[in-house]
Design a protein that fits this description.
Its EC number is 2.4.1.227. The protein is α/β, with parallel strands linked by helices. Helix content is 37%, strand content 16%. The strands form two sheets. It has a seven-stranded parallel beta sheet, sandwiched between helices. Strands 10-9-8-11-12-13 form a six-stranded parallel beta sheet, sandwiched between helices. Helix 8 (264-272) links the parallel strand 11 and strand 12 (277-279). Bound molecules: uridine-diphosphate-N-acetylglucosamine.
Length: 358
């Protein structure tokens, strides 16, 4: 007996920020036969669940080498489009879902050249160049933050939020493995998240500020990344430094306050987990998109947002101390964060797929 389900190709590749939303959505689509399009040596080879067949094409470098040799870039893109077209035709796929990034270009162009519907999800408050360029060819662009719509004039956008891994939902708390970190139960915990690569400038500010927080009774868990040469320079009984932490959802649920970069994934997870935050957006992010991500929570009073060049250790010390001394304010901020969270984002995006790929 053949499989009578509709066939959907998901093109999602690279970082957790692109893969987690796609995986969460795929889980909501058992009524579709899903296969995956990625790149041979990226995270998808580890993260994409084994029930989805993974096809890979070589598109790495298209973005990185822009400007060096237009002919070579276009040749490579043309080859990737050709491969994606072959895959879509031979696999008899009926539509494409992509979360953007460089895999999106060949996937979207190939699908449209075959007249297939495409849903593109953009998680940032300011869509990246690839999204803006490709959006006209998409049936619809699903957006993670509402402000993104105004950067996509003439494009059909639908606000779905960004799907996150289910462990960030408050309801999942009891099902998560407990923390393997020696943090006492009743102390305030400040969690610092630099993102998948860490944030050396944030690390430095935190180390300069932490003494006053320790004195106020707080513990600090500091996710530092692995590129910081000074990571050993702070030692304190209330301080734990980690390059990366796998059980981030559990740690986030335990935190009283989170200091973080403002990648779309992190901002969304904080809203879902209803956590008060201090954002220090990456100043070099394309078109300053992290600042606008941060402002989605900042504008409602759920977070404080500081621009890195203007932020001193004195200011950070003082602002965090004042929050630590005001648990009611922290609780209010967490509530405001929760108010903008889209807890059923994966279901919404899956529903959009059902409406468009049929
Ligand atoms: C440096 C950079 O350009 N980052 C971009 C990248 O973010 P990137 O994907 O790197 O970062 P995000 O903030 O979106 O997500 C980080 C993810 O890593 C997880 N995590 C982090 C640390 C840790 O120790 N353990 C752990 O599990 C977080 O829970 C989160 O799920 O894509 C995002 C979506 O397009 C953009 O908004 C970001 O600006």
């Amino acid at each position: 007996m053949g499989d009578a389900r509709m066939r959907l190709l998901i093109a999602a590749s690279g970082t957790g920020g692109h893969l987690f939303p796609a995986i969460a959505t795929a889980e909501q689509l058992p009524d579709y036969q899903i296969e995956w399009l990625g790149v041979p040596n990226r995270l998808e080879t580890q993260l994409v669940p084994s029930q989805y067949r993974l096809h890979t094409i070589d598109v790495e470098g298209i973005q990185q080498r822009l400007g060096l040799g237009t002919v070579r870039i276009l040749t490579k893109l043309a080859l990737a489009i050709f491969q994606a077209r072959q895959l879509l035709k031979q696999g008899q796929f009926q539509g494409v879902l992509t979360t953007g990034g460089y895999i999106a270009a060949p996937a979207v162009i190939a699908a449209r050249s075959l007249g297939l519907p495409v849903i593109l999800h953009e998680s940032n408050a300011i869509p990246g160049k690839v999204t803006r360029f490709l959006s006209r060819w998409c049936s619809v662009v699903a957006i993670g933050f509402e402000p993104a719509a105004k950067y996509l004039p003439g494009v059909k956008t639908i606000f779905t939020g960004t799907p996150v891994r289910s462990q960030f939902q408050i309801e999942a708390l009891d099902t998560l493995p407990s923390l393997d970190l020696p943090i006492p139960d009743n102390v305030p915990l400040i969690l610092i998240v630099g993102g998948s690569q860490g944030a050396v400038a944030v690390n430095k500010l935190v180390r300069q500020s932490a003494a006053a927080w320790f004195e106020a009774g707080a513990w600090v868990v500091h996710q530092t990344g692995s590129n910081d040469p000074d990571v050993e320079s702070l030692k304190h009984p209330q301080y734990i430094a980690l390059p990366f932490y796998d059980n981030m959802a559990r740690l986030l649920h335990r935190a009283s306050l989170v200091i973080a970069r403002a990648g779309a994934g992190t901002v969304t997870e904080l809203a879902i987990a209803r956590k008060p935050a201090v954002f220090i957006p990456l100043p070099t992010a394309a078109e300053d998109h992290q600042y606008y991500n941060a402002q989605v929570l900042g504008a409602t009073g759920a977070a404080l947002v500081f621009r890195q060049p203007e932020l001193t250790a004195e200011i950070l010390t003082k602002e965090v101390l004042s929050l630590l001394h005001s648990p009611e304010k922290l609780a209010q901020m967490g509530k405001k964060a929760g108010a903008i969270a889209v807890v059923d984002s994966a279901e919404r995006l899956a529903q959009l797929v059902r409406e468009i790929v049929q």
